[in-house]
Amino acid sequence: MDLYLLSEILEPARIVEARADIVEEGEDPRAVNVVVSGWACRYRQFEDGQRQIISILLPGDCCDPHIFRLDRRDHAIGALTQVSVARIAGHAIADVMNRSAALDLAFHREALAAAAIQREWTVSLGRRSGVERLAHLCCELHARLTAVGLAEGMTCPMPLTQPDLADALGQTTVHINRTLQDLRAARLLALKSRRLTILHPERLRRLAKFDPAYLHLRAADDAVRRIETIRP
To answer: Domain for residue 124, yes or no?
Structure first.
């Protein structure tokens, strides 16, 4: 029943090319966007061109399942790679949440897990060193990709460019380049052909002070499984 309800309200997916906006800041948030495939991000950009990535969106992620309750969108969502995105009209998702306690719980858990990730990013920007931030992000992305079946052992996709990493971690591209060199020299990770391999997981986690509990993966993955099952 829950899958049927989702399949009824999920609009056909559309393709958004890499580096294009999926939605712009200030838009009327009448619909919820769902990343079907590819990588996207929430971000803020200033008039001088400076950008801050505030979260990474992976396949199966809902871009704020309750955003339609606001008057305007306070951030943009951009495609980091080519992405396939489906929409759910705000009134439709509200109706489904009212009709299905299981879906209502799943979407609330997904929103709470996203907020927990945001808090951890704030901790990174405020208290982790540059190398710790990058190590932590690598651990987080690997854990999230593993949870949705997109990692192979300790190897996972990593399409983020050095400017993307700089915008996410509040650093310069020069600093990101040096930090990557340090992590490679320490034999903690390898990056090749847009794929990340964590060579020494425990050492990297200790360096990053990474505890995956904040990801609430068991709590958040119900909505992801449902969306993945009914991809348009």
So the answer is: no
Q: How far is CA 223 from CA 35, 65, 102, 110, in A?
A: 12, 10, 9, 7
Listed as own residue / partner, the contacts of 68-73 with beta carbons closer than 8 Å and 24 or more positions apart are 68/29, 68/30, 68/31, 68/32, 68/93, 68/94, 70/29, 71/28, 72/26, 72/27, 72/28, 72/29, 73/23, 73/24, 73/25, 73/26, 73/27, 73/28, 73/29
At residue 227, the pLDDT reads 43
H/E stretch holding 223:
helix 217-229
Is residue 217 pLDDT above 90, yes or no? no
Range of the domain at 185: 129-208
* Sequence letter at residue 186: A
On whether the pTM is more than 0.70, the answer is: yes
Structure tokens at 14: 């559309």
Task: Please give the structure tokens belonging to residue 175.
Answer: 């600093």
Residue 100, both tokens: 């299905």
Residue 199 inside a domain? The answer is yes
Name 169's Cβ contacts closer than 8 Å, sequence gap at least 6.
Answer: 124, 125, 130, 133, 134, 137, 176
